[in-house]
């Protein structure tokens, strides 16, 4: 309740503010405070805000005013915000003291121990193909509007200077990458790397021309409004936040993922797998960057998540999509999307915040989310994945056996052969044969030559007759000029035709009735058809996944949204139908109803009308069987086979991760108990904080043990939940035997790197 109260100042209290804090009140002023807010109220707001990020300081203060029948005033929000900053700073300093006494304040300690299921390795375990899987992505929702001085003239287009006051306040955390760290990979340093001038045939840059996220031309107009345009986030496969970077006055530049990868390579070393919605493009960027040699040395792999992967072209999917990548199991690498779906609730309360408060809110949100959401759901995550894998292995083999019987297949190794053949076939389609390209160019130049010849004849007739029928000198000169231009155009086209005839060794010029003319004309029409189909395919799939992301793809709005919001698709569909009708024989045209039902790239049946007729393309010279992988039944069987392979890998990986978690739970609880007992002997107050930390970490232990027991009772479980012995024996490790001694000094100034920046008055 809001009330006036008298506070007792003891002789041991050096300051008035210290006396207030000791009695559970945070003052709103460091000198002669007259207003304070109780710790209980501040803690209530902190927890409530973290659980419901929409709740702002102003809304909470208004709620308190309503409860106390007091009129709301703006200064009340200011007072509350000041006290709340002090309260969070105290909590952060206490947390740093706890981590320091537990010997867990060394560089990258938190990062190296962020996720028990990823990092708590034990002895005598089989090595994993990917030592750790993580996902990176940007989020544009957590923007921050820069405060500018009011315009002094009527020209609102001129940006005014920022009116924000400089501040020395920082948020001490290794979770946030500093702007200086990120700017080491800025555009001026990596300009050559960002240009699309690399090898066009490189197998790792198939979608380079599709994805332009990493260049900020589109977002430059927003720089005048927003300072931080969002965040760039890295999460482990289980959802724990690894690092965060503010996207400052820019879009998704290459410096943000490069900075994240550099940090993670330094912390975790070799065999990392990185999921990114434009992982194919980023692989090229990473390889060409100064970090490329180290990434290759440490066998860093760039992948594409399952959700975004279906919007990439077919060949890119075969190389980067999770379904076809050995060692990934059933991981979708889309954890960032799930994290952003929750963190977006924070956007409204930080849009107009200062730089410090913007960073403070984001950091405290992800710290709380890791501790109370992600860690709580860790064993549930493992249980659900185990059930999913067992479900696939339960029904998949029988369905696959039936599919193989229907297709006349006896050996599962053929599916790997099919995948290799499809990859080889698509790689062959990346670039048309040179002779075929020259023939089509020659055919087009012949058409141009006939057109320029007709134009030359017409202009010559006009010029020769103008002198007889027209006495106007200017008209005669115009006719003469037009004739000269037509003659020049004809000569230029003729020279091109003759040069192509020389390259193609053509002794007799093609005529419209010749077989060569007719065949090449069909090739040109087929190429136009293929390109129209490619464009339509890309637009439909991209739109479908955009609407799926908004949970609208399974609703009746999908058709209307697709048609109303995508005029480009209408144009592409019209061009496709025109190209289809131009073929001989004409191909089937598409209607809107058919197009919107297409769900994946395979539904477009791109291979059906390719330059080579794959229904007649023989994959074994001594075989008379057509390519079964080109048929819908063959593709379903192949996908089911690889899904079963990934499920087996998932079981193997989960068996390892489950033991890691079981071992961590035992070791962490034992370690914190020992530390608490040792600290109790010389600092009971600090020991109490360690006890609170232990209770916070251990509040889900019973839940985890129940889930682990439930996993062990699954029919088909092949692992063990018996804890093992951790390989991490360093300072602060859960399995180590702590020997904590009283610090030489308790003065805060002795530990500046631990305590962080001083509070501003």
Structure report:
With 761 residues, this protein is mainly alpha-helical. Among the domains are: 87 residues, no CATH class; 224 residues, no CATH class; 77 residues, Helix Hairpins (Orthogonal Bundle), CATH 1.10.287; 114 residues, no CATH class. It is 54% helix and 6% strand. It contains 28 helices and eight strands. The strands form two sheets. Strands 3, 4, 5, 6, 7 and 8 form a six-stranded mixed beta sheet that branches. Strands 1-2 form a two-stranded antiparallel ribbon. The C terminus is likely disordered.
Number of helices: 28
* Helix amount: 40-55%
The dominant shape is globular
**Biggest sheet layout:** 6 strands, mixed
- Contiguous uncertain segments of 5+ residues: 192-204, 213-224, 548-559, 599-603, 605-625, 747-761
Q: Which structural class is indicated by helix and strand composition?
A: mainly alpha
Radius of gyration: 34 Å
Overall average residue pLDDT: 80
In what range is the share of β-strand residues? 5-15%
How many β-strands, per DSSP? 8
What is the CA–CA distance across the termini?
27 Å
């Amino acid at each position: 309740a809001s009330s006036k109260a008298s506070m007792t100042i003891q002789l041991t209290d050096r300051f008035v503010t210290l006396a207030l804090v000791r009695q559970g009140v945070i003052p709103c002023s460091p000198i002669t405070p007259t207003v304070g807010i109780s710790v209980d109220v501040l803690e209530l707001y902190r927890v409530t805000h973290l659980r419901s990020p929409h709740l702002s300081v102003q809304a909470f203060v208004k709620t308190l005013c309503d409860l106390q029948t007091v009129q709301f005033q703006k200064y009340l929000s200011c007072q509350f915000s000041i006290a709340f900053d002090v309260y969070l700073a105290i909590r952060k300093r206490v947390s740093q003291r706890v981590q320091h006494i537990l010997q867990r304040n060394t560089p990258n300690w938190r990062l190296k121990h962020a996720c028990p299921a990823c990092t708590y390795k034990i002895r005598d375990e089989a090595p994993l193909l990917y030592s750790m899987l993580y996902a990176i992505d940007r989020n544009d929702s957590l923007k921050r509007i820069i405060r500018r001085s009011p315009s002094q003239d009527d020209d609102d287009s001129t940006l005014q200077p920022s009116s924000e006051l400089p501040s020395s306040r920082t948020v001490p955390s290794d979770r946030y990458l500093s702007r200086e760290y990120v700017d080491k990979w800025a555009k001026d340093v990596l300009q050559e790397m960002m240009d699309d001038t690399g090898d066009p045939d490189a197998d790792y840059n198939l979608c380079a021309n599709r994805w332009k996220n990493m260049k900020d031309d589109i977002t430059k107009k927003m720089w005048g409004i927003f300072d931080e345009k969002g965040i760039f986030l890295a999460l482990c496969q289980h959802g724990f936040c690894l690092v965060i970077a503010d996207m400052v006055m820019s879009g998704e530049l290459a410096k943000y993922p490069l900075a994240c990868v550099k940090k993670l390579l330094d912390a975790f070393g070799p065999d990392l797998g990185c999921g990114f919605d434009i992982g194919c493009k980023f692989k090229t960027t990473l390889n060409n960057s100064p970090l490329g040699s180290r990434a290759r040395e440490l066998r860093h792999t760039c992948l594409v998540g399952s959700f975004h992967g279906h919007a990439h072209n077919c060949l890119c999917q075969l190389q980067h999509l999770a379904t076809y990548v050995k060692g990934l199991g059933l991981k979708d690498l889309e954890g960032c999307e799930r994290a952003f779906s929750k963190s977006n609730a924070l956007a409204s309360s930080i849009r107009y915040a200062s730089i410090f408060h913007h960073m403070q809110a984001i950091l405290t949100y992800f710290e709380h989310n890791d501790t109370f959401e992600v860690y709580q759901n860790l064993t549930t995550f493992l249980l659900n994945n185990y059930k999913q894998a067992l479900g696939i292995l339960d029904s998949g083999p029988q369905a696959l056996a039936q599919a193989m019987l229907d297709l006349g297949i006896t050996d599962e190794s053929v599916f790997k052969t099919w995948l290799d053949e499809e990859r080889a076939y698509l790689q062959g389609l990346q670039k048309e044969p040179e002779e075929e390209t020259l023939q089509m160019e020659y055919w087009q130049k012949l058409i141009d030559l006939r057109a320029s010849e007709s134009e030359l004849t017409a202009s010559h007739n006009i010029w020769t007759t103008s002198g007889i029928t027209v006495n106007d000198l200017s008209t005669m000169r115009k006719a003469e000029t037009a004739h000269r231009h037509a003659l020049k155009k004809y000569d230029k086209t003729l020279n091109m035709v003759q040069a192509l005839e020389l390259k193609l060794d053509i002794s007799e010029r093609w005529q419209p009735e010749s077989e060569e003319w007719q065949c090449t004309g069909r090739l040109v029409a087929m190429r136009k058809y293929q390109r129209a189909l490619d464009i339509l395919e890309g637009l439909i799939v991209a739109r479908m996944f955009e609407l799926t992301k908004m949970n609208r793809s399974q609703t009746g709005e999908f058709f209307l949204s697709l048609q109303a919001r995508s005029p480009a698709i209408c144009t592409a569909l019209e061009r496709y139908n025109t190209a289809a009708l131009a073929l001989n024989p004409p191909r089937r045209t598409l209607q809107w109803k058919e197009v919107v039902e297409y769900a994946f790239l395979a539904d477009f049946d791109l291979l059906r009308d390719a330059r080579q007729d794959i229904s007649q393309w023989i994959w074994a010279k001594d075989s008379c069987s057509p390519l079964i992988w080109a048929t819908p039944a063959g593709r379903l069987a192949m996908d089911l086979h690889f899904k079963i392979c990934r499920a087996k890998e998932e079981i193997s990986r989960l068996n390892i991760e489950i033991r890691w978690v079981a071992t961590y739970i035992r070791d962490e609880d034992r370690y914190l108990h020992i530390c608490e007992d040792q600290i109790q002997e010389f600092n009971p107050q600090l020991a109490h904080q360690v006890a609170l930390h232990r209770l916070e970490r251990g509040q889900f232990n019973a839940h985890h043990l129940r889930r682990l027991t439930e996993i062990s009772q699954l029919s088909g479980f092949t692992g063990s939940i018996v804890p093992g012995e951790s390989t991490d024996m360093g300072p602060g490790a859960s399995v180590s035997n702590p020997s904590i001694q009283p610090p030489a000094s308790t003065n805060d100034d002795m530990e500046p790197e631990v305590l962080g920046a001083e509070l501003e008055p």
